[in-house]
Amino acid sequence: MDRKIGILANSIELKDIIEGIYKEEVQNGKIIIDILDEDRINEQGLELEKKGVKAIIARSGGYHHTLGKVSVPVVNLKIYTQDILHAVMTAEQLNKKLVLVLSGYDEFDYDEWKSLIHTELIMEEYYTVEEIEGVVSKYKDVNDEIVIIGGGIPCSYAKTFNMDNVNINATEETIRDIVSRAWQIVDNLFNQKYKNNILNNVLDHIHDAVIAVDKNEKIIMFNERAEELFKKNKKNILYNKLKEVFPDLVFITNVLKNKKSIIDEIVHLKNLVVTANVILMEVDGQIEGVLCTFQDITKLQGLEKKIRYEMNKKGLTAKYKFDDIITNNPLMKRTLAKAVNIGMSDSTAMLYGESGTGKEMIAQSIHNISERNREPFVAINCAALTENLLESELFGYEEGAFTGARKGGKPGLFELAHGGTLFLDEINSVTINLQTKLLRVLEEKEVMRIGSDYVIPLDVRILAAANENLKDKIKEGSFRNDLFYRLSILELNIPPLRVRKEDIIPLFKNFLATFAKNNYIIEIDSQLENMLLSYSWPGNVRELRNSAERYVLLGELELEGDKFLDKNSNNIEEKNTTEDKYNNAEERPATDFCLDLKEIDKYVELKVIDMLEKQGMTKNDIAKVLGISRSSLWNKTNSNKDLSKK
Fold first, then answer.
1. Which residues, other chains included, contact 460 with Cβ-Cβ below 8 Å and sequence gap of 6+?
2. pLDDT digits over 522-578, tens only?
3. Closest by CA position to 349, among listed 486, 504, 496, 246
4. CATH number of the domain at 498-577, out of 3.40.50.720, 3.40.50.300, 1.10.8.60, 1.10.10.10?
5. Could you tell me the pTM of the whole model?
6. Which run of H or of E encompasses 435?
7. Domain 206-301 is of which CATH architecture?
8. Which end of the chain is more exposed for a tag (fewer CB within 10 A), N or C?
């Protein structure tokens, strides 16, 4: 342990006294002494700290100018009354008037001690270093008549003005006491840092059992999980040598010797297979022990399986936030602002929008900005399931409720969403019969599993979505009026992509960047932009995303209509020209049906390889993408040269 301390001595005399008392400590660098300098007083403490001292001793003005400027403790070497009286009595021998210059922070009751002082004495106070020169210079015209008594800086100014001066030095007893106190503070801080380091390592690395060993290989921590794992009582373990108690754990002491931590190492013990982390514990740059955390792999695998099962269920987490939604369109911006307000409330909300407009993305964003954001987000597409299956998914069922029911039953989505949000997408597809059951759950805030005879209380926020107007469904008699009003406390209409022309190009570029390999940047020109902007996008953002993916993979943009764009030729061409040419079967030449499938495969291979090369990919990258070796790629490109010329 490094116990180095620094001392700011206010005079050469004090420095000499300290060196006389602590000669060995000064020589080996355990005590560093610096003489107080009025020009460097604000930096001297920092300079000592840079030299590695763990505490600084300073006196009077030096103490007050160092305190708060360094991160190590500063100990005050006080000017005691006996020190002042000793200096005064020394000065009296010069038979001159005495001027006692003290910091305003020093304590000396002159009235109490003046009976012992037989010479005229003038008291002067200062609070900053800058004041000292002015205080001393007041007496320069009578320099032959007075003696300055004070610390190092007042005495140095007295010398400048040719005045007699006497330093107020500390007694040997005072110096020993203050140095001892400084070392005690350093020791206490070291012990506190050491304990905090153990605690921090435990908090940062603990997963299961914990064993901490000091630099002498003695066990200093053995938690309850370690007792369970190793079947040992910590009363019989602590402060014993590790190798005497656990000879199988010699790898822990090896880390201490090799000074190299171990992370996630699988260790085979007698009756256990564990994963271990052994972390070096350092205090002030010195290794003081190791901390080892263990996990029982069998339990870990079971826990991982459970977590994976729970977290991988669709909708239990919401990954999208409003920041993920790209838009420059004023209408969409107003829609998102309204969605934010909906998220701040806890009321049921109805989202309207065509397929592919991003209703679930906005629903997830609403959940993530709400007070329920730490709770589950559960989503289901009501149109994707039959009535019976949807009912069992929503409400859950008990064991034996129907043929094929899972053993032990199954919680429904309402239960899984408890405390959070349930998103019912395409609710317009739900049957009247199931709508009645949904309405009861929303009204009563409780659910009953299929085959159960008891109700389960719920705290769930409902967000629903539809791709058609529910009021029209009410008129048709296919949607309940009361359920509509229960769902439509808040409403949000999401505009289709065709009215968001400003968003088409930014969204397309974002999708290109998402699908491009190796961060390859795909540029789009004005021809492609015009084609994107002139299209109506009936599939909305979902269709735009799919088109971007196809453009990255095949280099083609094919839209509904009669045109597509080939990225490699950069030409807009008519679609299905070959089909139109031979639309009449009688006009189609018989030779056109003689197709060699192998030649077609070779042509497609060459087309894909050529496209990837134009994207700037290397031969190694292309071979990796196609799942073949570089030599196979070379063979394909060379064997297909003739085909490419056709």
1. 414, 417, 418, 419, 420, 421, 422, 445
2. 778 888 888 899 899 999 999 999 988 888 888 778 776 545 566 555 555 554 443
3. 486
4. 1.10.8.60
5. 0.45
6. helix 432-444
7. 2-Layer Sandwich (3.30)
8. C
